[in-house]
Specification:
With 518 residues, this protein is α+β, with helices and mostly antiparallel strands. 53% of the residues lie in helices and 13% in strands.
Length: 518
């Protein structure tokens, strides 16, 4: 015979389970705007039927259900969408760093504008043309000197501004390295907290959410792969437990390093440890010469993400050579300026100043020894003070009508670097004339910047799309929660009504039966 009180227990389970589901719904509603919160769901299961199989089991028509129980409170999360989002977030970090730095470089170069080097050089060439027509005119000579100063000032400004931004990028590298170390440490601490909860059969959903927020942030800085690990000796953990995160550093193509490099190491025995990030710099050049992850030093910087993007802009030393967007631009400006100054000065010293019977011994442009050409170029102070010392003539005596050397100086505009009489080892990298080479530099900068911006835009679009899909799975929908609230409320009311009905039945049995015949 089935116990009379069985119905009360069934109703009580229904009340308790519906109440737990309502509490979970209330928690979802309360955290609808909480960053990183994943909506939670109570997984309901039927309790074991009665009676169970056995020799002493009561003989009844069949097993009767005994109610419902809340098996687990599980967060709703799609690990595949998480992996997709982190891949795109990594690209956003990389291309975002590239795009921002290249945009700053474009702002410094400021081409094509009236204040850019191309326009300034054009004014300088025009002033030399004007000098060929009026070699004795002091005004024409002053224009040559003043536009020469403008050329030098522009190159000085480029160098100073580029190196200033480069220094800022270098500071960002150190900040990002510290941020990576902080995230790694925080994830490891959450792993430890989770490892103390899961073996008892509980599901620490709040800790999972906190950990995933940190992993999302880490994925923007470096390329990572997350593996869930359930240690072998892990108590009575739930089947839906997420386990501990092993975070592996990946290359830009998504492949693993050999041997693997783990930022947070976890295996079947439990937590192993973490690998801190340390950026080292070459003492001579100041460029990055290695990034150390734990005991492994990386020299290829192919781990993508924001840190890699910053390094590729700031500059790095690899196989004895310097690479990077800013060092490359500074080197091109320096080589171009050096070649131009040497050739211009060589031509200038072949000529004669106005009224001078001896060939000029003055350099038109000067470069401070030990410093970059673009950094220290300036017009000779004697020429600035006395423009008559500009060597426009090609004959002894510096006659007022002698403009042959001025023509040679003006013709340098069209002269290819390969035709320069003053060449050094760096001149081999120079092609075309000064103007065409500089135009090529600006053109490449524009293409690189546009490419980085386009890749960034595409990555943002894809990340937004994936995040929307992820939110559709994990985020809280107030409309859905209101529907669930009504559903669980009705279930609770029905269980309560069932308990009231069972109470009435027991009252009849206890107080109403056995009174006949009294």
């Amino acid at each position: 015979m089935i116990s009379t009180f069985m119905g009360l227990e069934t109703a009580k389970r229904g009340l308790s389970t519906s109440q737990g589901a309502l509490y979970t719904t209330g928690n979802n509603v309360a955290n609808a705007n909480t960053l990183g919160y994943s909506r939670q769901r109570v997984n309901l299961v039927q309790t074991s039927g009665f009676p169970t199989v056995g020799l002493n089991s009561p003989r009844v028509a069949g097993q009767i259900g005994t109610g419902v129980a809340a098996e687990t409170v599980q967060r709703i999360r799609d690990s595949f969408l998480d992996a997709q989002f982190r891949t795109q977030s990594n690209k956003i970090g990389f291309y975002g760093a590239l795009s921002e730095s290249l945009s700053k470089m474009e702002g410094i170069m400021n081409e094509p504008t009236d204040s850019g080097l191309a326009s300034t050089m054009e004014k300088f060439w025009n002033s030399l043309q004007g000098l060929t027509a009026n070699t004795e005119n002091s005004g024409a000579r002053e224009v040559v000197a003043s536009t020469g100063v403008m050329v030098a000032d522009t190159l000085n400004y480029y160098y100073k501004s580029l190196t200033s931004v480069q220094t800022d990028i270098g500071n960002q590298i150190n900040v990002k390295a510290n941020e990576i170390n902080t995230l790694i440490s925080s994830i490891d601490q959450l792993n430890q907290q989770i490892s103390k909860v899961e073996p008892h059969g509980y599901i620490p959903n709040d800790l999972y959410d906190q950990r995933d927020v940190l992993v999302d942030q880490l994925s923007q800085l470096v390329s990572i792969k997350v593996n869930n690990v359930i240690p072998t000796d892990y108590g009575r953990s739930s089947d839906v437990a997420a386990g501990l995160y092993n975070i592996e550093l990946m290359q830009e193509d998504g492949s693993s390093y050999v041997p693997p490099i783990n930022l947070v190491s976890v295996n079947q025995t439990g937590m192993v440890g973490t690998s801190k990030v340390e950026v080292s710099y070459d003492k001579t050049t100041g460029m990055v010469d290695g990034v150390k992850f734990g005991s492994k030093t990386m020299m290829d910087y192919k781990f993508s993400g924001e840190l890699s993007g910053l390094i590729n802009n700031f500059g790095y030393k690899k196989d004895g050579t310097i690479g990077g967007a800013y060092p490359d631009m500074l080197k091109k400006l320096d080589n171009m300026t050096t070649a131009f100054v040497n050739e211009f000065n060589a031509i200038h010293k072949q000529g004669y100043a106005l009224g001078d019977s001896d060939a000029s011994t003055l350099d038109f442009f000067e470069i401070e020894p030990g410093k970059s050409a673009a950094q220290s170029i300036k017009v000779n102070s004697e020429i600035v003070k006395d423009p008559s010392k500009i060597a426009a003539g090609a004959k002894s005596g510096g006659a007022s009508g002698d403009n042959e050397n001025a023509k040679l100086l003006a013709d340098l505009k069209k002269k290819a670097f390969s035709e320069y009489s003053t060449k050094d080892q760096n001149s081999k990298e120079l092609t075309g004339s000064f103007d065409t080479y500089y135009s090529g530099i600006i053109g490449k900068l524009g293409v690189d910047s546009q490419s980085a911006q386009k890749n960034l835009s595409n990555s943002v679009v894809l990340a937004t799309s994936v995040n929307q899909n992820r939110d559709s799975v994990s985020s809280v929908s107030l409309d859905e929660e209101m529907t669930d609230m009504i559903r669980f409320q009705q279930a609770y009311n029905a269980s309560a009504r069932m308990m009231t009905m069972m109470d009435e039945m027991l009252d009849k049995i206890i107080n109403g039966m056995g009174t006949v015949g009294r």
